[in-house]
Amino acid sequence: MARIALLGATGQIGRSILLALLTTTSHEVVQLVQPASEKAKAVNTTAEQRKRLHTMPVDLLTASVDELAFILTGVSVVISALNGRVLQAQSKIQNAAAQAGVRRFYPSEYGKHHIYFGEDGYGYLHPIWSMKAQANEQVMHHPAIVSGEMTFTLIGCGEFYNQDREIHILGRSDAKIDFTHIDDLAAFLVQTIEHPEVSENRELNFVSDQISYDEIATLLERYTGKEVEKDVMPVEVLHRAWKDSTAIPDEVAGGSAFPADFWILVKGMQGLGRFWRPPEQVHNHLFPDVKVTTFERYFQRRFGQDEN
Fold first, then answer.
1. Which helix (H) or strand (E) segment is 79 a member of?
2. Residue closest to 177 by CA, chosen among 231, 213, 228, 205
3. Which residues contact 193 (CB under 8 A, 6 or more apart)?
4. Alpha helices in 159-230 (DSSP H)
């Protein structure tokens, strides 16, 4: 049994990781949460699981390395599911982890970065992807990683799809896209912990389904019996929005937890046929016990037609 520290446990990804750790392993879990956070109390746990779950309120942005190292004493694995402004604290947390003797560090990746090539022929990186890329580089270049005292595992994936929201299509609706179910990702991550020799110092990618919006619409019609009307916009919307954020259509602005310009960029990469990885860069095969939730399986469950 290991002692695992989880950062960002109150977020959507972190919550799934927390539940996977508690329900499929016997590991002890320490969740570091912001002092004012109330969401940490909302996780449904059994009495046995509550004995293994420890909640540590700490402001990651203001806490010192020594304070964090004290909290991480006895921890063998640190999993970061941080996002937004607090991601800036990840480097400091890794310093503390090294001081505390943590053996494995998981940076907060869980996505796919893209360079946008504008009509001027130059490449551009959105600030959100830039921040993630810089944070990842700091983790993998950390002195403790270089010396071998600490190892890392970085996990990428497709777009998370098990979220209720309107779907707007930008560009080609027949383009293949990598999608990942959040609970599948959590199960994959747990397996990388259970088999550290397979995941040591590796960048791994996990995908639940590779499918187009046309195929998704066909499946949705099959399982709901209703006609699906696709909202398809030309890819030129992406180019206009990159130059001027006020050009983002009203119906999509605010349709995601991410900024509208980032959302438009993600959808544009999908519609341009760039949001997928070749088979050799997908590592589902390393842990065949992780069952993937394809869109068809998801709709079967969602609409009560799952025979298993």
1. strand 77-80
2. 213
3. 2, 4, 25, 27, 77, 104, 199
4. 182-194, 196-199, 213-224
Q: What's the Cα-to-Cα distance from 130 to each of 34, 69, 204, 285, rounded to whole Å?
A: 25, 28, 19, 29
Give CA–CA dist 149/137, Å, rounded. Answer: 17
Give residue 40's pLDDT: 59
Longest dimension (CA), the chain: 59
- Give me 134's structure tokens: 């810089």
Q: What distance lies between CA 47 and its chain's CA centroid?
A: 29
Long-range own/partner contacts, residues 142-147 (CB < 8 A, 24 or more apart): 142/91, 142/94, 142/95, 142/98, 142/105, 143/98, 144/94, 144/97, 144/98, 145/105, 145/201
CA neighbours closer than 13 Å in the CB half-sphere of residue 230: 18
DSSP-derived secondary structure letter, 48: H
Length of the chain: 308
Whole-number percent of the chain with pLDDT over 90: 80
Q: What is the pLDDT at residue 305? A: 75
Tens digits of per-residue pLDDT, 161-188?
876 666 789 999 999 999 999 999 999 9
Ranges of residues in the chain with a pLDDT under 50 are: none
Asked whether 241 and 264 are in contact (CB, 8 A), the reply is: yes
Radius of gyration of the chain (CA): 20
d(CA 145, CA 70) in angstroms, rounded, equals 20
DSSP strands (E only) in 218-293: 231-233
